[in-house]
Known about the structure:
The protein has one helix at residues 26-42, and strands at residues 2-9, 14-23, 50-56. By secondary structure, the chain is of the alpha+beta class. It has one domain. It has a 3-stranded antiparallel β-sheet, with helices on one face. The protein is flat, with a radius of gyration of 12 Å.
Amino acid sequence: MKLQLVARHLRDDQDLVVEDAGVVDDVNVAILISHMEAEIEANRAEGANWRFSIQPIEETYK
């Protein structure tokens, strides 16, 4: 399964793919989590307008 880091701005209600992780292993998941933490810190000025999640990419379901 391949994962991606997705950011959603609540006002725009659109998903923005921040990063694709490729093939999943423990190291890639840890990297995605650290990148998610960095994005949260970088967007702290906007407060609660951003939601971040780690999700499987679409081709996983096909």
